[in-house]
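Question (not urgent): is this output format expected?
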Amino acid sequence: MRGEILKEALDIINGERIDLYGNPEDSFGDVSKYWRTYLETKFDIKIGLTAKDVSMMLALMKIARETNQGKKDNLVDAAGYIGLAADLSE
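Got this back:
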């Protein structure tokens, strides 16, 4: 059915995942701090990395996985990350 992936992603990002990992604004904000520290230390550069950047890069990871092995989970998660990115500020 058309839109099934989007509906499933919507249900997940508004329920199950919040229960497991907390609000994306908080968890992705924490991830951005860890990634920023890692990247700045490894490459000796200063970068700005936001919670929205984390959401976008996680979506790209799922898209890369989908190109190597197609699975419904990849598509659902990618849609969810894109949906979350729309709600996160720069």
